[in-house]
Amino acid sequence: QVQVAESGGGSVQPGGSLRLSCTVSIYRYCIGWFRQAPGKEREAVAVITSADGHTYYGDSVKGRFTIAQENAKRTTTLEMNSLKSEDTAKYYCAAGGRTFGGRCRTVEEDFNFWGQGTQVTVSS
Question: Is the pLDDT confidence value at 1 over 90?
Answer without folding.
Answer: no
